[in-house]
Design brief:
With 182 residues, the protein is an all-alpha fold. The protein has helices spanning 6-29, 35-51, 53-63, 67-83, 89-113, 119-141, 146-163.
């Protein structure tokens, strides 16, 4: 039976997005940022988390990295952001935003290169929506200590390091998944 890191990436995706949602909402709930800064922090997070993914993807292509390297770095960056949340909110948002982007690229590499169709990519992506929704809710209600989120992320990083490492499978351009914009 072929080894598949899909479960590890799916659970890790849930935890990364949970930690990001928690970090953003808990800073406001605890009064660590002023109300006037909330919108700017959310825009900064979204710009870093989503507008930089193509840069990390290009870097992964250039260095021929397997996904686990980027996923691992993304998880660790997110954990650092959670840890410094109260002391340095703006820096924290940078760490969780860039960590999220890096993780998405890493998990996406393996989800797309390990299958012939897009089912694996859909499974990988689906857990993030639940993670961000619960993370925001937990942050609003200050559920659980930030230490718990960091511990969960540390376990996810360990799982990625153990179960998802290996050679990057390079797919020829003609066989790679194609996207078209109409």
């Amino acid at each position: 039976m072929k080894k598949s890191p899909l479960t590890v990436y799916t659970v890790s995706h849930f935890l990364v997005d949970l930690a990001c949602g928690y970090t953003l909402y808990s800073m406001y709930t605890k009064g660590e940022i002023e109300a006037a800064s909330v919108a700017v922090l959310f825009i900064l997070y979204n710009m870093l988390a989503f507008a930089t993914q193509h840069l990390f993807g290009a870097l992964a292509d250039k260095v021929k990295s397997n996904g686990s390297t980027f996923a691992f770095v993304g998880i660790i960056s997110t954990a650092i952001g959670v840890l410094i949340r109260g002391a340095a909110p703006w820096v924290s948002v940078c760490f969780v935003g860039l960590g999220n982007a890096c993780f998405h690229v890493g998990g996406g590499i393996d989800a797309l290169t390990e299958s012939q169709g897009f089912t694996r990519a859909g499974i990988f992506v689906s857990s993030g929506a639940l993670g961000i929704a619960l993370g925001c809710r937990f942050g609003q209600n200050l559920l659980f200590s930030p230490t718990l989120y960091v511990l969960a992320l540390a376990l996810a990083a360990l799982a990625v390091a153990i179960f998802c490492r290996g050679e990057r499978k390079v797919i020829p351009d003609e066989e790679a998944p194609q996207t078209t914009i109409s």
